[in-house]
């Protein structure tokens, strides 16, 4: 059975979804139909969003648990189902998938090396403070946390780690990239690993992707469309209005009945966008985050051979 020959391993909220969709455009690249199968992180585990892996107590609201349950429903935990994701491969040169859990969950690099030791690995990193901020906004946008004050991000971290096994809620801890990546550099040949920065994708997306194409051994003259932005996070300005626009209710039902389907969708999408905003992170919180990550950033830049001095400003 076919297995992937490259993986996007992380980091979450750093551009992995964008890379997944942009790479899918290349005629010589096959990306798994499920974006985040997370097989190498969760192989053999019984996943339940309502029960932490360590057997602890889960105090999250049921709505939050249901969202996480839907999120992990796409996770693949056995080899046969994982291999089935790639049964549609025909004449593709590069076969891949994107699971940002692979960087954060410590067992993933061992499982990857066991199954596909020659795989090429791609990581994309974002300023850890910006990444934490974006992750916080993402959950607030989807109503996964009653707290919407982003300036409480550091105070909430210990609770998040105790309460939720699903690591993407660990806003601050995920940003310590050095140890996460060092596991891969220790286990794999460094020529198998490419590390990019979110700034690269933002400033020269086509150039970054063509570099990835060259890394993967496909036609690097192909020009992908990078105009679409993916998973942009923001917080609802008005929670009640956001609920009306996103959850089944009488008002939505009435508008759906009287408006043509496509027109109704366009109006709802526009109203949802207008109701979203991005509260600013207080300067003192930003400084505290920068100081917290400083040592890790200094080690990271030596590991990946990139100047990260702007991350320390």
Task: Give a structural overview.
By secondary structure, the chain is an alpha/beta fold. Helices cover 46% and strands 9% of the residues. The chain is built from 15 helices and seven strands. The protein has helices at 16-24, 39-42, 62-72, 79-84, 101-104, 108-115, 128-141, 157-163, 177-187, 198-203, 205-216, 239-246, 250-258, 261-274, 283-304, and strands spanning 6-10, 29-31, 94-98, 120-125, 193-197, 235-236, 276-277. The strands form two sheets. The chain has a five-stranded parallel β-sheet, sandwiched between helices. A two-stranded antiparallel sheet has the order 6-7. α9 runs parallel beside α15. It is globular.
Provide a short characterization of the protein structure:
This protein has 313 residues and is α/β, with parallel strands linked by helices. It has helices spanning 16-24, 39-42, 62-72, 79-84, 101-104, 108-115, 128-141, 157-163, 177-187, 198-203, 205-216, 239-246, 250-258, 261-274, 283-304, and strands at residues 6-10, 29-31, 94-98, 120-125, 193-197, 235-236, 276-277.
What is the topology?
Layout: E1 6-10, H1 16-24, E2 29-31, H2 39-42, H3 62-72, H4 79-84, E3 94-98, H5 101-104, H6 108-115, E4 120-125, H7 128-141, H8 157-163, H9 177-187, E5 193-197, H10 198-203, H11 205-216, E6 235-236, H12 239-246, H13 250-258, H14 261-274, E7 276-277, H15 283-304
Parallel strand pairs: 1-3, 1-4, 2-3, 4-5
Antiparallel strand pairs: 6-7
Helix pairs in contact: 9-15
């Amino acid at each position: 059975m076919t297995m992937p020959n490259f993986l996007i391993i992380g980091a979450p909220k750093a551009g992995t979804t964008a890379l997944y969709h942009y790479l899918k455009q290349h005629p010589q690249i096959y990306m798994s139909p499920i974006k985040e199968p997370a097989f190498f992180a969760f192989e053999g585990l019984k996943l339940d969003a309502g029960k932490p892996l360590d057997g602890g107590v889960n105090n999250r609201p049921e709505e939050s648990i249901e969202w996480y349950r839907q999120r992990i429903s796409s996770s693949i935990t056995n080899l046969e189902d994982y291999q089935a994701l790639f049964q549609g491969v025909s004449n593709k040169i590069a076969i891949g998938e994107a699971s940002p859990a692979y960087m954060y969950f410590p067992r993933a690099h061992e499982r990857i090396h066991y199954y596909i030791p020659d795989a090429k690995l791609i990581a994309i990193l974002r300023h850890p403070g910006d990444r934490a901020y974006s992750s916080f906004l993402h959950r607030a946008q989807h109503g996964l946390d009653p707290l919407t004050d982003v300036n409480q991000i550091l105070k909430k971290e210990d609770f998040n780690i105790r309460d939720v096994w699903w690591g993407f809620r660990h806003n601050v801890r995920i940003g310590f990239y050095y140890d996460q990546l060092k596991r891969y550099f220790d286990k794999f040949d460094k020529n198998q690993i490419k590390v990019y920065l979110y700034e690269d994708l933002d400033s020269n997306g086509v150039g970054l992707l063509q570099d990835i194409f060259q890394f993967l051994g496909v036609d690097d003259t192909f020009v992908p469309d990078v105009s679409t932005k993916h998973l942009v996070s923001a917080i609802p300005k008005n929670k009640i209005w956001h609920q009306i626009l996103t959850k089944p209710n009488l008002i939505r039902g009435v508008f759906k009945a009287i408006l043509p389907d496509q027109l109704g969708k366009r109006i709802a999408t526009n109203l949802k966008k207008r109701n979203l905003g991005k509260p600013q992170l207080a300067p003192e919180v930003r400084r505290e985050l920068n100081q917290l990550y400083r040592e890790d950033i200094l080690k990271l830049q030596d590991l990946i051979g990139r100047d990260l001095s702007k991350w320390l400003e």
